[in-house]
Amino acid sequence: xxxxxxxxxxxxxxxxxxxxxxxxxxxxxxxxxxxxxxxxxxxxxxxxxxxxxxxxxxxxxxxxxxxxxxxxxxxxxxxxxxxxxxxxxxxxxxxxxxxxxxxx
Length: 104
Known about the structure:
globular, alpha+beta, Alpha-Beta Plaits, four-stranded antiparallel sheet
């Protein structure tokens, strides 16, 4: 059963470029190395570019554990957490409905 999660965070303006680069590198790693991560997207607020929402879908609990315990997560959070204004807010969701191709 798929697992749906979000992470919402805001970074300091002076760390924005560093975080954007880290996000790009992190998502590239996920695309190449985590087939169990069905989708991982980073959204940036159009009105406040320091505010982000990450949406991710794991195929199952094993895929989530593989992701969470990866060295890539450690590198990414090492950069990101030093630049966030408040702790990252994680939430878990259940699927209600999705259009074709978007459900994972």
